[in-house]
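Q: Given only this backbone (364 positions), what sequence would you predict?
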């Protein structure tokens, strides 16, 4: 039995070889039969369609993206001297104004230095005044001026250092992070406005403007050319259920590469009247690229195209349609502006069975 099974392929091959022409003719006949079967099946499908009236309306072309929320203004407060914290004037969640004290370090040595430099400045001023008399030479006067300037610079520095012993907010906002408490020793970091985790963690106190916020988006190279600074955008949040209006405020000139696609960082500024939106939340943004009012609008699934261009089928009688080539204005994913080819109030055909479309495909 096994021997017979093994010999079957060779017998089949010898048969095909012996009757090669007949076998090829049989395969061609079978292929034609399959083609006719499926071709006829498409032809017999009923033509199903609906009609829709061409009307005037407002049309919006937009692009959508999602991104995280951050503050437009951030102050990472830090000290320029290494010293012990003696006072913390604020707590988390406090609302502060620009110039308001946040934290203080030990200023004992800074106060001593300030008084010393103040005394030195007075002495230099007196010495300079004494040199400006009839008996002093020009060189002596110049030397007195230089000494006074030096004393004044040292005094100004000592005064600034003493003032910097008290950390003050540079913006109006909310205290969102406090990294030091009384008794801790400060690091020499100074203050900055960097919106990074590293900068916030290195600061003594972090203040954010939680009213004026922004969404940080990444727009692909295919769409970013249509995005302009100043364009209106609608920002939608799931929790809380809220939609706010904003504007594109910044578009980076340099891109970042992700999966061989270039993306550009885009910022959309917006303002909230409450504190419902928190930094770090995700917002869905719809940027309005172009908007037109009172234009003729047709659904994209009514627009077809062939080698001559885009067209619609306009109803002229109850079951009769004529082919009209059209010109389009702006389009979105659903509708298109029609600038030429149809009139307001006319009805166009929308095919519901895509297998019977006479054109090559959809426009839009």
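A: Predicted residues:
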């Amino acid at each position: 039995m096994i021997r017979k099974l093994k010999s079957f392929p060779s017998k089949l091959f010898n048969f095909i070889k012996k009757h090669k022409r007949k076998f090829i003719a049989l395969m061609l006949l079978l292929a034609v039969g399959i083609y006719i079967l499926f071709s006829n099946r498409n032809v017999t499908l009923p033509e199903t369609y609906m009609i829709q009236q061409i009307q005037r309306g407002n049309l919006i072309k937009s692009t959508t993206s999602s991104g995280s929320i951050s503050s437009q203004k951030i102050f990472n407060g830090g000290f320029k001297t290494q010293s012990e914290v003696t006072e913390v004037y604020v707590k988390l969640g406090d609302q502060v104004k620009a110039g308001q004290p946040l934290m203080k370090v030990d200023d004992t040595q800074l106060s001593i230095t300030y008084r010393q430099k103040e005394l030195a400045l007075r002495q230099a001023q007196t010495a300079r005044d004494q040199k400006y008399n009839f008996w002093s030479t020009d060189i002596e006067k110049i030397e007195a001026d230089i000494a006074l300037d030096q004393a004044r610079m040292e005094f100004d520095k000592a005064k600034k250092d003493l003032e910097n012993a008290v950390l003050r907010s540079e913006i109006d906002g909310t205290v969102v992070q406090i990294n030091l408490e009384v008794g801790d020793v400060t690091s020499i970091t100074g203050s900055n406005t960097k919106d990074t985790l590293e900068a916030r963690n290195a600061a003594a106190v972090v203040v954010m403007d939680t009213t004026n916020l922004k969404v940080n988006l990444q727009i692909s190279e295919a769409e970013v050319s249509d995005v302009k600074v100043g364009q209106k955008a609608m920002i939608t949040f799931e929790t809380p259920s809220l939609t706010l209006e904003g504007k594109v405020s910044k578009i980076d000139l340099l891109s970042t590469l992700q999966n061989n696609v270039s993306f550009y960082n885009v910022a959309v500024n917006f303002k909230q009247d409450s504190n419902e939106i928190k930094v770090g939340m995700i917002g869905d943004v719809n940027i309005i690229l172009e908007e037109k009012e009172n234009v003729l609008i047709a659904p994209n699934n009514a627009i077809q195209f062939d080698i001559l261009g885009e067209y619609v089928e306009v109803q002229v009688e109850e079951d009769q349609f004529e082919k009209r080539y059209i010109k389009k204005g702006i389009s979105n994913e659903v509708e298109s502006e029609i600038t030429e080819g149809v009139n307001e109030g006319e009805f166009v055909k929308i095919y519901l069975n895509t297998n019977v479309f006479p054109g090559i495909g959809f426009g839009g």
